[in-house]
Amino acid sequence: MRPRPYVWTASQEKEATEIQTAVTDPGQLDAYRVILFNDDVHTFDEVIVQIIRATGCSRSKAEQHTWEVHTRGRSMVYSGPLPRCLQVSSILEEIDLRTEIQTA
Questions:
Q1: pTM metric for this prediction
Q2: What are residue 35's phi and psi, to 5 degrees?
């Protein structure tokens, strides 16, 4: 018995195109990250509160980021789609924190 040939249908083609678009669309990938840099101006509490406001993370996570910024000079506080990274960065910069958006 011979195997039946594989038949490519239009619905499969549409589905494949949608998957490819989702994979290649940078707005859909977590291809961006917000880096927060250390400074000598802000207190730990100011930075913790601002990270929570910007990212919606827990206080514990914000404290970890703040400690990493203090000891290593930087911390990746958020990764996600570019529009959200721009929003997070903007909120952090409201109190003059220094940020950078990088591609992953």
A1: 0.72
A2: -105, 130
